[in-house]
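Quick one: co-fold with D-gluconic acid.
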Amino acid sequence: MSNPLFDLTGRTALVTGSSRGLGRAMAEGLAKAGAKVLVNGTDPARVAMAVEEFRAAGHQADAVAFNVTSEAEVVSAFEALDAAGTAVDILVNNAGIQFRKPMVELETADWQRVLDTNLTSAFVIGREAAKRMIARGYGKIINIGSLTSALARATVAPYTVSKGGIKLLTQAMAAEWAASGIQANAIGPGYMITDMNQALIDNPEFDAWVKGRTPAKRWGKPEELIGAAVFLASPASDYVNGQIIYVDGGMLAVL
Ligand code: GCO
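Sure, here it is.
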């Protein structure tokens, strides 16, 4: 018997960048909690594969293919969902890229690309979702931040700025939308085992630094974000707004 506080039955969750990595893990966790998941990604074949695998596992899943950096594609995707009678109850703004280079060598185009993908997309998709959530008086928005929502690391300035922006965008969403029945919160993953971090994991010095700097003495697993995602997507968090939950093995808690 599932706990109604954490039951997502009857809800639909759109998770951007959910064909792999953290987004895939969170989408799977939301599906296991009862939600229908809308899988999004840039690679149609990978998205279709993820949908197939979710359905094979007995979950409700559909593909919603759009490029998160294209406002036109985002708007038309929501219009298509409207036409299909599909309401997005839960939005997880997860899609993001990393680009590591010292700022003195960084091209402005690369800076802009990271900010467009990681931050502006969350605003555009959040706005489109919120218009509809406000009309229904209900919605859950979960923006994916980072340790770099709080602290900077050299050579990842655009990512850091985008994730710092995600924290305050989440608070801005709470400021404007909480009275309309929307809870907007964020999750700040620590150093997780993902494709994006594989180069760091494979670097013995960086691997040793993460394990030494993290009280848990290890990298995080994508599935370890599911608890925070289900909490923020469920009735259990109906009075939580504008917060960020760091799932980081304790890294931000200690010097
Ligand atoms: C890096 C990493 C980090 C992690 C994560 C930490 O280059 O330092 O990519 O950005 O991915 O964001 O919370």
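If it helps, The helical segments are 21-32, 44-56, 71-83, 108-136, 157-177, 198-201, 204-213, 226-233.
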